[in-house]
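Students often ask why inverse folding is considered easier than folding. One informal answer: many sequences map to the same fold, so there is more than one right answer. In these notes we will look at a single instance of the problem. The structure comes first.
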C-alpha cells in the first residue's frame, strides 16, 4: 500500500486530474469532500488530504510515503525528503512585491511574508539586511498598512497585487508542484514508487503528446 499526501486547495484539482489520467481512481478526492483519508484498496493506494504546509511533515515522518506539494513550501521548509518529480502543475512565482516606486532598499527594510526562511535566505544571498515579519495570509495588507515596505509572496494571476495597487519587483523562484518521497519508503517500496513515477512522468501535461507516439 502506498500512502500519498495531497495538498488541499489550489493544486488539488490539477493533481487529481493528473492521477486520473494515469488511470488511478480518484473518486471522492476533491476540494469539496470533507473526508481526510481516502483508501483505494484495488489500486493499493491511500490518499491523505492535508494542508499544503503540512504535506512535507507527513512525508518526513513517514506516515505518508509520498506527497504532492508546491516548491514554495519545499524551499521554505527544507525538510529531509526526496524530491522525485516536477509535476509541472500549479505554476506560480515566488516574488518580492511592493508599492510602485519602491525598487531600492531602504536602510531598514521590512518584509512581510508567509515564507520567512525563504525570504531571509534570498536577502542574505543579496547581502541585504532585512527584518522579516511572519504573517499567515493576506500578506498584501502589510505594505498597505505600513507594517512592511515590501512582501515576499506567491503570485499566480497577479490579480491580488493589481487590486491592491502593488507590483511585482523581483522574481525569487518559479514554482510548480513536486512529488516528494520519504527516504525510508523510497528504499523499502522503491519498486512501486518507481512504477508510479514512471506512469506520472508519461502523463504530465507536456508529455501527453509523446505518449501517443510510444
Ligand atoms: C496566495 C498568495 C497571494 C495570492 C496570489 O494567497 O499569497 O495572496 O494567492 O494569487 P493571484 O496572483 O492569483 O491573485 P492565497 O489565496 O493562497 O491565500 P492567503 O492570502 O490566505 O495566503
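Output (designed amino acids):
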Amino acid at each position: 500500500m502506498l500512502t500519498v499526501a495531497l495538498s488541499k486547495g489550489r493544486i488539488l484539482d490539477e493533481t487529481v486530474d493528473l492521477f486520473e489520467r494515469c488511470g488511478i481512481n480518484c473518486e471522492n478526492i476533491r476540494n469539496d469532500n470533507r473526508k481526510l483519508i481516502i483508501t483505494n484498496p484495488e489500486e493499493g493506494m491511500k490518499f491523505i488530504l492535508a494542508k499544503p504546509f503540512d504535506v512535507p511533515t507527513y512525508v518526513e515522518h513517514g506516515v505518508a510515503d509520498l506527497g504532492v506539494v508546491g516548491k514554495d513550501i519545499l524551499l521554505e521548509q527544507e525538510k529531509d525528503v526526496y524530491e522525485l518529480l516536477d509535476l509541472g502543475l500549479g505554476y506560480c512565482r515566488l516574488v518580492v512585491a511592493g508599492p510602485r516606486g519602491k525598487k531600492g532598499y531602504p536602510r531598514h527594510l521590512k518584509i512581510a511574508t508567509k515564507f520567512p526562511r525563504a525570504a531571509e535566505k534570498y536577502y542574505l544571498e543579496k547581502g541585504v539586511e532585512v527584518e522579516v515579519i511572519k504573517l499567515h495570509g493576506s500578506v498584501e495588507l502589510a505594505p498597505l498598512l505600513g507594517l512592511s515596505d515590501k512582501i515576499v509572496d506567491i503570485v499566480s494571476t497577479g490579480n491580488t497585487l493589481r487590486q491592491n495597487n502593488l507590483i511585482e519587483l523581483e522574481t525569487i523562484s518559479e514554482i510548480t508542484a513536486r512529488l516528494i518521497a520519504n527516504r525510508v519508503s523510497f528504499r523499502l517500496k522503491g519498486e512501486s514508487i518507481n512504477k508510479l513515477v514512471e506512469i506520472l512522468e508519461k502523463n504530465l501535461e507536456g508529455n501527453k503528446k509523446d505518449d501517443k507516439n510510444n
